[in-house]
Amino acid sequence: MKETTAWVSPINNIPASLKPIAAVQKKHFGAVLNPTRWWGRMPRLFWLVALFVGFLERRSARLSPVLRSLLMTRVSQLCHCAFCIDANSLRLAERAGARDKVQAVSDWHASALFSEEERAALAYADAVTATPPRVDEATKADLKRHFTDEAITEMTALIAFQNLSARFNAALEIPAQGLCDSAKGKPHA
Fold first, then answer.
1. The pLDDT of residue 180
2. What pLDDT does residue 144 have?
3. Left (φ > 0), alpha (ψ -120 to 50) or beta: where does 30 sit?
4. CA–CA separation, 108 vs 117, rounded Å?
5. β-strand partners of 180
6. What domain range includes position 141?
7. 129 and 79 in contact (C-beta within 8 Å)?
8. Rounded to the nearest 10 degrees, how much is the dihedral formed by the CA atoms of 141, 144, 146, 148?
9. CATH code for position 125
10. Distance of alpha carbon 178 from alpha carbon 112, whole angstroms
11. Residue 184: left if φ>0, alpha if ψ -120 to 50, beta else—which one?
12. Would residue 27 count as lying in a domain?
């Protein structure tokens, strides 16, 4: 674990109930992920959050894996969450099979890389993440052209989840892990 100067210290000893997820993180990423060391103070809440994101990331989700990662990366950027930008950029690069969308998502309005469906979803993510949310009629109409009510509901839950995660991590100054070179959108070796 990298040295941190966060104002709320991470825990060093992972609770027994979180050891299985910590082992999976170590196997996949080479280390326990930084948020686990803060969320680990509340193992039951950690598992509830993990179950929530697990449901949103299920195989039968109404949104494609690339779109989910795209939205999560954008919300991470809007919330200035260093860890979330790092982790979600890695996932987006893996799912998209290229770095171009990772590099363009922060300025998606000016990029030709995104489909009309993705642009509608990104506009919605921007609007929902604003404080307070600012979802105008044009954004709603554009979203309805591309998504069912069920997909919009699931998208809203995904955006709300990522806001919770990113705001928690940003508020506690949980650092990036070095999973993805965000500027280049590629995994670190």
1. 87
2. 98
3. left
4. 13
5. 187
6. 63-177
7. yes
8. 170
9. 1.20.1290.10
10. 28
11. alpha
12. no
In 3D space, the residue among 105, 93, 121 whose CA is nearest the CA of residue 187 turns out to be 93
**What's the rounded Cα separation, in Å, for the pair 29 and 184?**
19
Amino acid, single-letter form, for residue 58: R
Residue 10: helix, strand or coil by DSSP? coil
Q: How far apart are CA 71 and CA 152, in angstroms?
A: 13
For the entire predicted model, the pTM comes to: 0.90
Residue 12 within any structural domain of the chain:
no
What is the C-alpha separation between 90 and 43, in angstroms, rounded?
Answer: 25
Domain membership of residue 85 (yes or no) is yes
Tens-digit pLDDT profile for the chain (189 aa)?
A: 445 567 999 999 999 999 999 999 999 999 999 999 999 999 999 999 999 999 999 999 999 999 999 999 999 999 999 999 999 999 999 999 989 999 999 999 999 999 999 999 999 999 999 999 999 999 999 999 999 999 999 999 999 999 999 999 999 999 999 998 754 444 444
- The H-or-E segment that residue 119 falls in is helix 116-129
Where does the chain show beta strands of DSSP type E? 180-181, 186-187
